[in-house]
Write a structure and sequence with these properties.
This protein is an alpha+beta fold. The chain has two domains: 63 residues, P-loop containing nucleotide triphosphate hydrolases (Rossmann fold); 65 residues, Alpha-Beta Plaits (2-Layer Sandwich), CATH 3.30.70.100. It contains seven helices and eight strands. α2 links the parallel β1 and β2. The protein is elongated. 9% of the residues are buried.
Amino acid sequence: MKQRLGIAVALAGDPDFLVLDEPVNGLDPQGIIEIRELILRLNREKQITVLISSHILDELSRLATHYGFIDGGRMVKELSAAQLEAACRKCVRLTVTDTAALARVLDELGAEYKILDDATADVYQKLPLSRLTAALAAEGCELTDMQERDESLESYFVSLVGGGSHD
């Protein structure tokens, strides 16, 4: 009830900008849904910009259009939801002996990919593995490693700030 009352009091002044600190902290699942819907409605219908400070990253991913990651009192990264989605996008990371050959093969297969460095690339769709390896072999390229990657907002944050204990 305190969160709801606090938001109601803040809205009494008809603000353009609203700062909420842990707005769903301590709420039951139904209360979390109600606060989330309220925040989205305020933004959509009343054009109120809402700045949310929260440690509940899953909840933020349902609301945010832009993210600012703070570590040790400093802003370490700012990005849009689209940029974050691209950074956390599910993919298969391939390690090969020749990324130029890999790029030719992936182009032939019509795959969406991103070359990361001399040896690695992320591929954003399922590929016929036997065709891929045969085509790479024909190009004189060897597939040395293959890992599925699916980063969550939480794991992105931890990798961004180092994952150590921050007192």
